[in-house]
Amino acid sequence: MRRGVLVRVVAVGLAAAAVAVAVALLVPWLPTPASTQADRIDFVFWFVTAISIAIFALVSGVIVYAVVRFRARPDDDSDGAPIHGNTGLEIAWTAVPAALVTAIAVVSAVALAENDHLPKHHIRVNVTAQQFAWSFSYPKYKGLTVSTLHLPIHEAVELKMQSKDVIHSFWVPQFSQKQDVVPGITTRLVITPKRLGTYPVVCTELCGEGHAIMRTEAVVQTPTAFAAWVKAQQKLAEQALGGAGGGPGLAAFNSNGCSACHTFKPAGSTGTTGPDLDNLATYARRAGKPLVAFVHQSIVDPNAYIEKGYQPGIMPTTFKSLPKQQLDALVQFLTEAKK
Ligand code: CUA
Fold first, then answer.
1. Is 161's C-beta closer than 6 angstroms to any atom of ligand 1?
2. Is the distance from CB of 138 to CB of 162 less than 8 angstroms?
């Protein structure tokens, strides 16, 4: 009799476990990890999932068996037999969950500590978040500032993140970690990319009207390709320095996030959220303004003239507080840089 009970409970439990395992494995819950940190987070995820499936199977087995075996017969109105506590069972259902929760806490703490560890050999990238763009600056390469995050594979990178306005949050799904970027403090994140590819950088904290478009890309490259990219970016900066507007103009363009939304050949940017800045002269003509005055106005008061096909209220109005020097360099770069 007792044996028969056990067999039935185990059979239901195994069936429930099979369904849960199928749901866990067949649905792509998490993207394929692209960093060693993401691997550790994945491990914690699967560790917790395995425990959850085991508990789900046990609970389903007992519940289904009890519902079927002990249900009231149609004309049976009597009370069930009185039962008293079961000390052994109570100790078990206290001790086992306590042990499991402790195990999850330890595994999570180890993963967090390891993910926080910065190897001696690493590069540093300063990340700036603002409504509604990301910019990345590489102190190792004379402060090279760009709007897409490029990383060499297998080399740890320390992101030091600051916000210019409100709280944003840095997230690359394939790197798993999320980190808030908070005005007034510098937050950090360590990433060791292990898979080549281009991944989305997403702002995952509601930060205003343009929150949904506050996206860019993280590109993981071979060390050779990364070095070539750095060289190309530096050459671009040099060209801008030689041309009108100079380096400060390009730096302002990149560090204020312009490149995230606008295409502008002299800056090598290809954003399509806002109008293509290679055609500023045409827009100025349409707006009926001299080019320099038009560009200046469009930066400090972006809603004054909206180019056909674009929406008002998308470009932040925060650029009116740019220091005059930066604003002038930016206007000069936009109006005079060689294509
Ligand atoms: Cu920045 Cu949402």
1. no
2. no
